[in-house]
């Protein structure tokens, strides 16, 4: 049995890995759709959560802000209940094996397959390809490295990342057949459309860090009065009937969804209790404020000690490296690079 086979057999738990960019502010949609599931997954799976700062560099960032946001996301993940004694939380750039493996995999991936990535096409649609950073083009390969370094079995991502995950699988399989079985081929774990939080100003699109206006999203650190104002000003539908019907009545359905998420109920049940938009908005706003309160309180405590957060992230990077470095070394050796010693 090869090293990888052995390591694989010895692993009793499924390994999960996901990544989050430290750009923009984390919002309610990120929390409901991803981060809170990470917190529950950590007890069932061997989980790795990576703050992907290198990915953020594919678009323009203010350096001081990127650094501050990276720490902030670390603190938010801790506030959301990720326990560094249970799972591994780390910053991508703290583990140089990521960009190192990415280079090796760039020599496995083809130009043509990267060209087919719809996210690259979308992100260059406005400014044109010519001015796009080369890193924006190779970004999916870095993401493949993030995943393959850890022998991740499951990768929970949103639907928008499905194509990148498929690419990671293709690159991993191609590598294994060309150079020997080094990588575990991951499965996508795209959550069944459970609660899906939509933009408050345009309820036909998902609440998004980059696409939503400030009024369209509830940031996890918005003060209660800001949350309340945004929800009260949410776009509703032309008639005044309260009914859960995301297609015909996206605005009201989103309010019902928010209230359901925050009170652990179902939007259909809740719809029966309202016959006007006003009270629904008031209740949804109050419920979301209460829903986020524990997270905000925990965050305030955690960020009051930035050095403590840095320390947790450094320990996470040590744990991550103990998995990533041997994988990188095995891949480099398989491709014919001469080991240093
Ligand atoms: N590309 C993902 C996003 O923009 C983030 C990401 C980077 C990621 N590396 C990853 C997600 C590895 C899952 C696994 O949302």
Q: Can you put this structure into words, describing what you see?
A:
Helix content is 54%, strand content 6%. It is mainly alpha-helical and 341 residues long. It folds into two domains: 3-194 and 305-335, Rossmann fold; 214-301, Tyrosyl-Transfer RNA Synthetase. Strand 1 (15-20), helix 2 and strand 2 form a beta-alpha-beta unit. Helix 5 (97-106) runs parallel beside helix 14 and helix 11 (250-263) crosses helix 13. The protein is globular and about 70 Å long. The model has no long low-confidence stretch (mean pLDDT 94). Bound molecules: tryptophan. Tryptophan is lined by residues 17-19, 21, 52, 55, 143, 146-147, 155, 157, 161, 164.
Name of the CATH first level of the largest domain: Alpha Beta
Number of domains: 2
Mean pLDDT: 94
Outline the biggest β-sheet: 3 strands, parallel
Number of strands: 5
Structural class: mainly alpha
Ions and ligands: tryptophan
Per the principal axes of the C-alpha atoms, what is the gross shape? globular
CA(first)-CA(last) distance:
25 Å
């Amino acid at each position: 049995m090869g090293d990888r086979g052995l390591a694989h057999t010895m692993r009793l738990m499924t390994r999960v890995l996901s990544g989050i960019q430290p750009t923009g502010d984390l919002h309610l949609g990120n929390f409901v759709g991803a981060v809170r599931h990470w917190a529950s997954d950590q007890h069932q799976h061997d989980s790795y959560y990576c703050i992907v700062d290198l990915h953020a560099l594919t678009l323009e960032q203010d350096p001081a802000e990127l650094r501050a946001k990276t720490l902030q996301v670390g603190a938010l993940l801790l506030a959301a209940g990720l326990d560094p004694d249970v799972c591994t939380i780390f910053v991508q750039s703290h583990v140089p094996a990521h960009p190192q493996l990415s280079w090796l995999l760039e020599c496995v991936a083809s130009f043509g397959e990267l060209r087919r990535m719809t996210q690259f096409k979308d992100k260059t649609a406005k400014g044109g390809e010519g001015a796009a950073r080369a890193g924006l083009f190779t970004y999916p390969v870095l993401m493949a490295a993030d995943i393959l370094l850890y022998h991740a079995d499951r990768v929970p991502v949103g639907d928008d990342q499905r194509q990148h995950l498929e690419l990671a699988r293709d690159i991993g399989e191609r590598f294994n057949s060309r150079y020997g079985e080094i990588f575990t081929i991951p499965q996508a774990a795209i959550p069944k459309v459970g609660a899906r939080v939509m933009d408050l100003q345009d309820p036909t699109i998902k609440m998004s860090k980059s696409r939503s206006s400030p009024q369209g999203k509830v940031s996890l650190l918005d003060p209660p009065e800001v949350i309340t104002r945004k929800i009260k000003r949410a776009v509703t539908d032309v008639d005044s009937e309260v009914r859960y019907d995301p297609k015909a009545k996206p605005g009201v359905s989103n309010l019902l969804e928010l209230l359901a998420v925050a009170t652990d109920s179902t939007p259909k049940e809740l719809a029966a209790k309202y016959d006007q938009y006003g009270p629904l908005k008031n209740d949804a706003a109050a419920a979301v404020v209460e829903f986020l309160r524990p997270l905000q309180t925990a965050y305030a405590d955690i960020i009051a000690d930035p050095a403590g957060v840095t320390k947790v992230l450094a320990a996470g990077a040590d744990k991550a490296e103990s998995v990533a470095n041997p994988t990188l070394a095995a891949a480099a050796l398989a491709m014919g690079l001469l080991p240093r010693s």
